[in-house]
Each structure stands twice: as structure tokens, then as C-alpha cells.
Amino acid sequence: MTTPPTGGSLEALVADWLTVPEVADRLGLRLSAARQLIVDREVLSARIGDRKVVAVPTRFFNDEGPRSELRGTFTVLADSGMRDDEIIEWLFTPDPTLPVDGAPIDALWAGHKTEVRRRAMEVAL
Fold first, then answer.
1. Which helix H or strand E contains 16, and what residues bound it?
2. Which residues contact 43 (CB under 8 A, 6 or more apart)?
3. Percent of the chain having pLDDT more than 70?
4. Count of domains in the chain?
5. Comparing 64 with 60, which gets the higher pLDDT?
6. Do the domain assignments include residue 85?
7. Residue 65 maps to a domain
């Protein structure tokens, strides 16, 4: 089970972010459609920077759009009572016990969705 770091900056933990207008531009969507991705929980967002702009981790996307592996993981973690910023932190916090080097997000992209979801369910208990 991954324990999120305490006192750290989410903005520093997640190196690359896209603002909502950048998401719209990258995916060729209207701004309202990019916002709807957040409302529909296809991706999660956090407020970052001095101006507290809404931004989404870049790694939540592939060339076609939001990564399909994320939505179920978001649901499991949210059902455990985690806030969106805590879910993002959990996904990006390195865990040396994973089958790949890095954080749960790295394990998802390496094809270990079942393992990541199992660990997310452990957090929920």
C-alpha cells in the first residue's frame, strides 16, 4: 500500500500539468468539452500555482485522450473517501513494492492495472 507523502507539494510531485485550455488545445476540443472531462471524472484536476489555476496531470492523457485505465481507479479511491488531490498524490507517489519502478501511475502505464486497483482497494479498506 502506498502512503502519500506528508507536507509535500502536489505541484512538485506531479512534474507536468496542463491547464484546461491546454487540454482543449491538445485534444482538439472546445473549452466546455475539456471542462466536461473533469466533471465526468474522466480525469482529475487540482488547483496549482500562485494563481491556483485548474490543471490536470499531463500523464492522464495519451494521444487519443484520457487514459481509460484511470476512471475505475479514480472511483475505487474516491469511494474510500479520498479527495481528488489525494488521489492524484497517491497515483504519483513512488512505491518501491510495485512490480515496476516508480509510482502507481507508472504501473498503470506498464499494464499493471489489476495490481494498482488491488492496492487502491486496500486503501479503501
1. none
2. 23, 37, 56, 57, 60, 61, 66, 70
3. 94
4. 1
5. 60
6. yes
7. yes
Domain contains 104: yes
The residue with greater pLDDT, 41 or 122, is: 41
Q: Where are the beta strands (DSSP E) in the chain?
A: 17-19, 46-48, 53-57
pTM given for the model? 0.89
Question: By residue range, what is the domain housing residue 45?
Answer: 12-124
Question: Angle at the Cα of 115 (from 13 to 84), degrees rounded to 5?
Answer: 40
What is the pLDDT at residue 3?
Answer: 38
| Helix %, strand %, coil % of the chain (to 5) | 50, 10, 40
* Residue in the structure block whose three cell numbers are 499493471: 112
Q: What is the mean pLDDT of residues 38-43?
A: 97
1 domain-assigned: no
